[in-house]
Amino acid sequence: SRQWRGVLREYSDRLNISDATPIVTLGEGGTPLIPAPALSARTGADVHVKFEGMNPTGSFKDRGMTMAISKGVEHGAKAVICASTGNTSASAAAYATHAGIQAVVLVPEGKIAMGKLSQAIAHNAQLLQVQGNFDDCLDIARDLATNYPVHLVNSVNPDRIEGQKTAAFEVVEVLGDAPDIHIVPVGNAGNYTAYHRGYTEDLKAGNSTKLPRMFGFQAAGSAPIVLGHAVKDPDTIATAIRIGNPASWELALNARDDSDGWFGAIDDAKILEAHRILSAEVGIFVEPASAISVAGLLERAEAGAIPAGARVVLTVTGHGLKDPQWALRTADGSDVQPTVVPVDTPAIADLLGLRANA
Ligand code: F0G
């Protein structure tokens, strides 16, 4: 038995790295692909969940960050910068500090989950809360990287998408082929693009027999790709994907057309309903943005767009512990109040409706 070595070492022959590349890794990748009978029963499809919350910093960003930081260090970077809705900043901070370089992260003020903010600070990033949204942060990060000696590690850096394509390789290895449909949440559309690239490379290499249809979902209040135009004031409780002008928009449209794919929009109420279904019926706890994959599956199934028995993989992108507050709200919006009991076994048994063994 051996330990998983991180995506650069596991897939060294399928990534643009050489002996000169210092490998900065926290053991990312190798995440579980979990069969989801409850979702299969609801949809008539054969549904599997790729749980990317199991990465070292709790999101899929680690796959691209190991690549971006390793290549950055190879080329002499002493500091990296990113704009982020939270997960990229957590990941950049962890990988940069592991490599012994500085991370600078720009986040929209008041619009990132507490867990992610804590991670960036814990990992010693210089964190700046910008009085604007993610799109403003990305504009500034690009400006700084162009004009100052800081290396950009947003997904406009092609190394990020390269690293992220490895998730598709893992799916093909586990299933023995590509799925029929692959569903992801969409913010900048980098991950959508990365899966399509990974599956395309697997098909060309003869590791699979088909290209999955790529389905991507945006929050209804921030759905520029669905609307066909940038959204100036994007809004959603799924703060990870609160993005009005996706960086990989063109690449994603190409991937959609090439895969006979689909982009849809889901409102916040449906995102939270799917969040409850995934945690209560499947046993996987994710942040709201990730639950949109489940909501998208249910919406497409209801629309009759998921053939019976189709093999469907949903990527859930970030761990629920990053933004746990949503589990403590009921469907009607009221707070969940955990029941308080005295130190009294019979009273607790009584409350639980238990009768003593005969
Ligand atoms: N899910 C989560 C949990 C995310 O954090 C993100 C993006 C996405 C989905 C969308 O992925 O941008 O490749 O389409 N988060 C970025 C960040 C923007 O800064 O952490 P995408």
UniProtKB/TrEMBL annotation:
Q: In which pathway does it act?
A: Amino-acid biosynthesis; L-threonine biosynthesis; L-threonine from L-aspartate: step 5/5
Keyword tags: Amino-acid biosynthesis, Lyase, Pyridoxal phosphate, Threonine biosynthesis
Output the Gene Ontology terms for molecular function. threonine synthase activity
Per the record's keyword annotation, is Amino-acid biosynthesis included, yes or no? yes
Q: Which cofactor does it need?
A: pyridoxal 5'-phosphate
Q: Which transformation does this protein catalyse, written as a reaction?
A: O-phospho-L-homoserine + H2O = L-threonine + phosphate
Do the record's keywords include Manganese? no
EC number of this enzyme? 4.2.3.1
Q: Which residues form the Tryptophan synthase beta chain-like PALP domain?
A: 24-318
Record-linked NCBIfam families: thrC
Purpose of the protein: Catalyzes the gamma-elimination of phosphate from L-phosphohomoserine and the beta-addition of water to produce L-threonine.
Family to which the UniProt record says this protein belongs: Belongs to the threonine synthase family.
User: What's the name of the protein?
Assistant: Threonine synthase
